[in-house]
Amino acid sequence: MENREEEIVVTQNKMKTNSTGSKFPLTFWEVTIALCVVSSFIVGLLGVYLTLPASDYSFLKLPRSLEDLQVLRDHLENYTSDYTIQVLVGYLVVYIFMQTFMIPGTVFMSLLAGALFGVVKGVALVVFAATAGASSCFFLSKVIGKPLAVCLWPEKLIFFQNQVAQRRGGLLNYMLFLRVTPTLPNTFINVASPIVDVPFYIFFTATFIGLIPAAYVTVRAGIALGELRSLGDLYDFQSIATLFLIGVVSITPTLMSKNKS
After folding, report:
1. Where in the cell is it found (predicted)?
2. pLDDT tens-digit profile of 10-24?
3. Which residues have CB under 8 Å from 242's CB, separation 6+?
């Protein structure tokens, strides 16, 4: 644990030392890898776009507000029944791309899944896309994540490293707790997990299971999209309390085993 923490601190110091010289923290090959990943997503989106019928697609953009989302929903409803595969593939590519590169707005994509596909299919779609995107971010962070994480979250990264080291015996329960509750941002967990040596199978399992409750809340709200006035309406006190209760249940075995030892 001490070696990993020292490594993070050393990397942080190097970043500060080099700030007067080259301010960009990535090497040429790291940038090349990131650009190749971006290119693959662009090719996927282009393929979906070319298979859709000729029409005006000026409405296609990442939603940044509930108004944008409602416009997108109204237009996509016309295509979902006739071009289900294209809409599904396009949705997955966009969602995974946003998760991979930490682009804000996936909550709007989750709402859209509920509006277009209903609760059961919507939750399955969101959980699959979110898990795939988080996994993609995990592996990309293995290559280029450390300098970025040290720049963005230096103290939080050391805190997370300490928590992971202390809970090695019940790491899955701890990661489940983090996924279910808003204790740490999901973006930070995706980037930092490979840096602090969270095994991928634990990361994947905790992500897949832990995102289900929040996905259900958001997708269900998407069905009544017109009734939402703000994103704050998504998580009322009861919803947040329920998520924390699930989180406490998930981490209880770890706390009990720690007390016994």
Report:
1. Membrane
2. 555 544 444 444 455
3. 213
